[in-house]
Fold:
Amino acid sequence: MAILNHLQSESTNDLLQPAPHLVAPKKICKSRLRSHTHSKPQNSHSIPKPSSNLFLTPSELSNGNQLHYDPWTVTDNMVPEGKRLDFGKGHNKYLPAVFEVPSHILVGADLKDIIQRTLIIPWPAGNQAYNKFFFNYVKENLGVPQGPNEKMAALGLGELVAGDMAFTMRLLARVPSAPTIRFDLRNATKGQLRSKVLNAILGNVRGPLCQEEQEHLEYQQKLTTTRAAVNAFRTRNAKDYRILHDTAEPHNVPCVGCEENVCFQAVQMNLATPQVHHCVNDLSKQLGFFGGMHFDQGDSEGGFTTMFSLPDLPNDSGWGGGQFHLVELGLYVRLDKPVVLSFSGLRLHGGTPPLAPVGMNIAWHPSMGISLGYAPRLFESKTRLEAHY
Structure:
């Protein structure tokens, strides 16, 4: 699922306030983090291999298995009341179909003024052989699309705009049974509560703020963006938020930044500088592994990543903020203005750098900042949490 909203300056304060229609969660136990920024582990490979072993092995590639599958197609009537979106002739035949529907069970009446468009993406999640082929095909043939915003439509990609919510329709996939869920939670202690949150974003020892102005600003920024991310997520994902909250209780998951934060236990900051207009590079040169197409294989399967784009670009016409791409879905988001986007980091994604106008030299000061709050997999179980600390 992906949810996008433009973060306008006049509405920023609204995100910092608790959602009025949601009950405040219980307080949680004090927990310490090792540092103020939890960076994701580095990986020398361009794309990590998920635990489900999605990508073809070298022996499978040598046998030509990548040629064994035609594109998986769907009929126009597969999604009830759905209207299939047309992305033009440039749309890659292996990318999934996208349908717009008038409503969805997870989009409540209280969100009707926020969610402008609901999208459904059918996908054969239970067909492991086809998924192996598909992800290898994406890795070898698609990658992160490059170029200015005007080029994306010609490539047959779909643009997510403010107020969009997209769901994947997982076909042929297994779902957890009730006995399985009960078995996983059988050792949870009834009534276990967590005490008041500890804002352990910086270290426990700090000097005078007059001597550490930059550190203080970073500290306050993380507190502010954490609360904004949590309340943006609570407002638009009320059901998912309640699930995360109820799961966090027996697992004693720490809240960092604000008492309501059961969504994000780690923060990452990315900073990219503009490139010349004809640049066709992704962000891998500037951000390493996280700049190219990748999975966040350390993310929680039940969690979401919420991304804030913070462009600092001149007001002159011709500047482009780059894009953020959900590569395997063929969807992208323009980053010309501040936006907030929630998505699963377990999907292939990547970004492109800001672009200067045609023929203009790049000044030193423009930049694109990306703030990401996410939930690491290690917080999913008490055993992993104890092993980490």
Remarks:
- The longest strand covers residues 305-312.
